[in-house]
């Protein structure tokens, strides 16, 4: 009997010790299946339209729940934005140990444009959160994606065009490029002819969207008094001012069209490479054709020798040599090199002959090709 009691006491003691050990061990690690973080905000299907005037504001705060690893942990969360649900070429929004992150209008807009999503159009994009901890035995866990709709704003704007007899004629290849100076505002300089007509086109194409006099007048816009309704078949603009050079500015937000007289924009080439070192605006200097602000073109004869560009008739104040373009990261045609003379002019290195040349002092580009 005494022996039986001793056996029972031993069994009870072992059970108690085992129970104690389990209590002291605490929670059991759950590294193989901790569960994925779940995105709580934004909700699936939410829509956002981004506004450039609010670029610094927070457009959304992404929030998610923590996975359960069975012990105190500090996961790193990688928050991604994808244009497709497989998240190929996804953009990283943040890497953080918090369970929420704010996203500004400007940063979200830049990510969308980087993914080649066009501004001004609504796009479905996807969010997901991946959690990881720094152990060899713990797998990364990924949330279910949330799909939202976002409309980014444009950061660059293609030009529009003016076509008509008031300018260079009713010909597509004579369309006057009118660059954007700010969102929905376009401006250029052009020579206008009294009594003739024109209108604006989205592209140099007869089938493109186009805008005549009533488009602006009927929307309450203010139209310069030098312009009137031509009352022709297309209700074009008719220019009533004196023939000459004008700056025209058209605003598609206010429907205003403004004009003011300006001096003709000019650019000359002079030097032994284009003929002779005559004063710009005289002799054998070459007057280039204005294309749009800062851009000029010409077709002329080149020969072994140096030259540079001048922004007026005369030697001063503005001239543009080889370093002006090269030192600003520009692109210079391979037919040209630095003459390394006193003025660091351009040296023409090609075969003598007729060439088309285009200079862009805004983007620091000089292009050349043999003329047909």
Quick description:
The chain is 12% helix and 38% strand. It has 372 residues and is mainly beta.
Q: What is the number of strand segments?
A: 30
Shape: flat
Mean pLDDT: 90
Into which percent range does the helicity of residues fall? 10-25%
Give the low-pLDDT segments: 4-9, 11-29
Count of helical segments?
A: 4
Q: Assign the structural class, choosing from mainly alpha, mainly beta, alpha/beta, alpha+beta, or little secondary structure.
A: mainly beta
CATH homology-level superfamily of the largest domain:
Immunoglobulins
| N→C terminal distance | 121 Å
Stated plainly, the CATH topology of the largest domain is called Immunoglobulin-like
CATH architecture of the largest domain: Sandwich
Largest sheet: 6 strands, mixed
The count of domains is 3
CATH level 1 name of the largest domain:
Mainly Beta
Please tell me how large the radius of gyration is: 35 Å
Strand content: 35-45%
């Amino acid at each position: 009997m005494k022996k039986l009691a001793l056996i029972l006491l031993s069994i009870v003691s072992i059970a108690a010790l085992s129970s104690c050990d389990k209590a002291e061990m605490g929670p059991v690690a759950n590294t193989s299946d901790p569960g994925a973080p779940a995105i709580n905000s934004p909700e699936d299907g939410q829509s956002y339209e981004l506004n450039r005037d609010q670029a610094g504001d927070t457009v959304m705060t992404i929030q998610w729940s923590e996975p359960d690893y069975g012990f105190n942990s500090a996961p790193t969360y990688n928050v991604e934005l994808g244009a497709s649900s497989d998240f190929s070429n996804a953009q990283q929004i943040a890497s953080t140990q918090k369970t929420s992150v704010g996203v500004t209008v400007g940063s979200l807009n830049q990510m969308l444009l980087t993914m080649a999503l066009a501004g001004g159009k609504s796009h479905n994009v996807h969010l997901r959160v991946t959690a990881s901890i720094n152990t060899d035995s713990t797998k990364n866990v990924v949330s279910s994606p949330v799909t939202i709709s976002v409309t980014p704003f444009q950061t660059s704007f293609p030009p529009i065009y003016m076509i008509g007899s008031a300018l260079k004629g009713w010909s597509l290849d004579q369309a006057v490029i009118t660059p954007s100076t700010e969102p929905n505002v376009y401006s250029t300089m052009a020579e206008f002819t009294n009594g003739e007509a024109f209108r604006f086109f989205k592209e140099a194409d007869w089938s493109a969207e186009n805008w005549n006099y009533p488009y602006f007048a009927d929307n309450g816009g203010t139209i310069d008094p030098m312009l009137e309704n031509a009352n022709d078949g297309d209700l074009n603009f008719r220019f009533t001012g004196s023939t000459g050079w004008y700056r025209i500015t058209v605003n598609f937000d206010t429907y205003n069209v403004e004009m003011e007289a300006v001096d003709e924009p000019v650019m000359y080439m002079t030097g032994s490479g284009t003929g002779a070192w005559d004063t710009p605006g005289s002799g054998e200097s070459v007057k280039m054709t204005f294309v749009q602000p800062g851009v000029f073109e010409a077709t002329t004869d080149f020969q072994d020798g140096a030259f540079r560009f001048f922004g007026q008739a005369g030697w001063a104040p503005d001239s543009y040599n080889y370093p002006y373009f090269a030192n600003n990261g520009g692109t210079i045609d391979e037919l040209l090199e630095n003459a390394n003379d006193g003025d660091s002019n351009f040296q023409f290195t090609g075969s003598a002959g007729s060439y088309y040349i285009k200079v862009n002092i805004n983007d620091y580009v000089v292009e050349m090709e043999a003329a047909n």
